[in-house]
């Protein structure tokens, strides 16, 4: 019996609604498989935890998480209670950095049965490799003076190691896919880091001569995600550019509530973390209507990471089948609740 020990952090808002649903689905898959099991260890780290303890997670939180095979997280953020930069950096970004989850992979693809807002959605199937540990996300800088003299300085950090690591990951992924990598740049406007980014890309691509490449400024690329997503295979992007592109990826599929993600530790020192692209969605929290598909597809990425690809494929097939029948939440044009979607999916998994 293969056992996977998973740290579960539902977090805030709809994270608390969709994570339990995804766990039910994973339990069903374990039963179907017969040879694997999950042991869930929940952690209440969140904005509620912050209100009680003055921090998002305990000081030894990272050490605690080290003992698991993976971390399964919902979403972080409740801006009415804790400023977003405090909650994000106190939990999500803290884990990404401390646990050296330097790559964030985020697929988007045309999904049967989903109503894409694109008038003519071609059969797109792309994956964004987002640099996840540096770039525009940096605590280097500060604020000085007050009022009209106030100054805010925010430095971006681009290391050769981190940049090359993201790019090599993208090229190796492309070798297993359709053999194309697009670089997201902005070297016309950002005069130091982005010409550097382009230079590293030009060097790295020489090692993957069979992979085709393209490079677009992020503004044009964002527009191409809308106007012709089908031309892309793998896209490599800095932390911020990747963040923005992947919300667009969700939107063109039909809803950001569907988009999955995996924060990958590539050096094997720490577990990886699985959490969907979307946030805590305070505007719909508590109504029971959050789309669980992003969290459930994220569970599929965790199964793939464990090498349980067949089980992951079974889950994806069942998801497509349920959505195709119109059992879906309001954000993608249906009327089902979070729980109704999950229940239908579980029935489908058992019957397929
Ligand atoms: N990875 C994360 O944990 C993460 C990601 C993004 C935002 N956040 C945080 O979440 C909070 C809200 O941020 P935001 O509003 O910018 O982004 P968001 O992703 O939470 O919501 C954006 C929009 O998408 C909708 N949406 C998101 N997920 C959905 C789902 N599963 N089903 C149906 N609709 C869904 C929301 O209702 C909202 O209208 C903030 O505190 C922010 O910092 C956290
Ligand atoms: O900015 C972030 O990385 C948080 C969130 O928007 C995400 O995409 O995970
Ligand atoms: K999330
Ligand atoms: Mn984001």
What does this structure look like?
There is one protein chain. The chain is α/β, with parallel strands linked by helices. The chain has helices at residues 15-33, 47-53, 61-65, 84-98, 160-176, 193-205, 218-227, 239-253, 293-305, 309-324, 338-351, and strands at residues 2-11, 36-42, 70-75, 103-109, 125-131, 141-144, 151-154, 180-185, 212-217, 234-237, 262-264, 272-274. The strands form 2 sheets. A 10-stranded mixed sheet has the order 2-1-3-12-11-4-5-10-8-9, with helices on both faces. β1, α1 and β2 form a beta-alpha-beta unit. The longest helix has 19 residues, at 15-33. D-malate is lined by residues 88, 243, 277. D-malate (MLT) is lined by residues 88, 243, 277. Pfam families: Iso_dh (PF00180).
Write a brief structural summary.
The protein has 352 residues and is α/β, with parallel strands linked by helices.
- Cα(first) to Cα(last) distance is 23 Å
Please estimate the helix content: 40-55%
Order of helices and strands: EHEHHEHEEEEHEHEHEHEEHHH
Number of domains: 2
CATH topology of the largest domain: Isopropylmalate Dehydrogenase
CATH superfamily of the largest domain: Isopropylmalate Dehydrogenase
Please state roughly what percent of the residues sit in beta strands, choosing from under 5%, 5-15%, 15-25%, 25-35%, 35-45% or over 45%: 15-25%
Named at the architecture level, the CATH assignment of the largest domain is 3-Layer(aba) Sandwich
Number of strands: 12
- Ions, cofactors, ligands: which are bound? nicotinamide-adenine-dinucleotide, D-malate, potassium ion, manganese (II) ion
By secondary-structure content and strand pairing, the structural class works out as alpha/beta
The order of strands across the largest sheet is 2-1-3-12-11-4-5-10-8-9
Could you name the CATH class of the largest domain? Alpha Beta
For the sheet with most strands, the description reads: 10 strands, mixed
Assign an overall shape: globular
Total number of helical segments?
11
Instruction: Round the mean pLDDT to the nearest integer and report it.
Output: 97
Rg is 20 Å
